[in-house]
Amino acid sequence: MGVLSLSGSVSAAEAHYPSRPIRLVLPFSAGSSTDYVSRTIAEMLGTQLKQSVIVDNKPGAAGVIGTQQIARASPDGYTIGLVSLASIAMVPPTLKETPYDPVKDFEPLALLVSTDLIFVRGTSVPANSVSEFVAWGRRQSKPAFLGTLGPGTSGHIAGVMFGQAAKVPFETVHFRTYSDLLSAMIAGEVHAMFIAPSAVLVPHVHGGKLRALAMNGPSRLNTYPGVPTFNEVGYPDMQFLVWMGLVAPAGTPREIVERLTSEIEKARSTQVAKQKFEGAGFRVISGTREEFAATIRKDVSTWKDRVRNAGIKV
After folding, report:
1. The pLDDT value given to residue 258
2. What is the pLDDT of residue 5?
3. Which are the contacts of 215, defined by CB distance < 8 A and separation ≥ 6?
4. Torsion of the alpha carbons at 305, 307, 309 and 314, rounded to the nearest 10
5. Which pLDDT score is estimated for 11?
6. Distance of alpha carbon 107 from alpha carbon 250, whole angstroms
7. How many Å is the maximal CA-CA distance in the chain?
8. What is the CATH number of domain 118-238?
9. DSSP letter string, the chain
10. Reported pTM
11. How many angstroms separate the CA atoms of 155 and 1, rounded?
């Protein structure tokens, strides 16, 4: 009888879900591209659910700290989180031990967007194209400074891959926040970065303070029509997209998972969402939960090999 009563109370709680605010853990800092995506979808999801969805920034260790918090949260539907190609597939192979299993510790809810990484040179580099940057980098007596948002992040790994392909030596300089990295680029303290587009970056590029040289997507972005793809400038192996999606902790009840997935998909598919995401330089992704899970499994395997072949360790 006790078991039946407990089961009944759980079902009743699920039927009235959500009865209180939902926390959306973001493993990255405010002002970043992931922050923009999280706050945009949180507002729209809150409208769909008629309940507040509160973004909780937990940056640090290239997203590992926040991603671990998502994995360890109570699987009751009141904590979800944003994960990306970096936190799920790129960072783990650089670590001796990862405090979460990227395949087993999460319930995929929905893919949201993908983003290109834009190769941007700092104010102290006299280069207006990838070929000019490569020529400049090879002439230097010391390695160029590559700014990143932390060891193992997508920008770090992309920079190492490009440096190896172009035979341009880089010394990485890691920053805790997006604003710190951007300030160092504008001040000429670092020479280059690979970064996702954001509303914060756009005015500096369009205003001429920084120069975007290439991007690693399959086609040019409407927000940066004059910036070629890496494939166009002779580096086809640099083509890949950094996806972002929402997950819940493993063990979250199926009814809640399905409700969340349904409401996220409704929010993501609106014209308002499309305009906000594409206007900021993102590509909206559609697909099922099963396709998201398959993407995670595939990328975990693929990037394990790519990162180790590049010799990247933290």
Report:
1. 97
2. 46
3. 116, 117, 118, 119, 221, 224, 227, 228, 229, 230
4. -130
5. 58
6. 5
7. 78
8. 3.40.190.10
9. -HHHHHHHHHHHHHHT--SS-EEEEESS-TTSHHHHHHHHHHHHHHHHHTS-EEEEE---GGGHHHHHHHHHS-SSSSEEEEEEHIIIIISGGGSS--SS-TTTSEEEEEEEEEEPPEEEE-TT---SSHHHHHHHHHH-SSPEEEEESSTTSHHHHHHHHHHHHHT--EEEEE-SSHHHHHHHHHHTSS-EEEE---TTTHHHHHTTSSEEEEE-SSS--TTSTTPPBTTTTT-GGG---EEEEEEEETT--HHHHHHHHHHHHHHHTSHHHHHHHHHTTEEE----HHHHHHHHHHHHHHHHHHHHHTT---
10. 0.85
11. 55
| pLDDT of 32 | 83
Q: Residue 14 has what pLDDT?
A: 65
Residues 6+ apart with CB under 8 A from 19: 13, 51
Successive 10-residue mean pLDDT values, the chain, 314 residues = 47 77 94 91 96 95 93 98 95 91 97 94 96 98 94 90 96 90 95 86 85 94 91 94 95 97 94 91 90 96 89 74
The yes-or-no answer to whether 8-114+242-309 and 118-238 have a common fold is yes
- In the chain, domain spans: 8-114+242-309, 118-238
Domain 8-114+242-309 architecture: 3-Layer(aba) Sandwich (3.40)
Residues comprising the chain, all counted:
314
Which residue, 26, 33, 1, is CA-closest to 201? 33
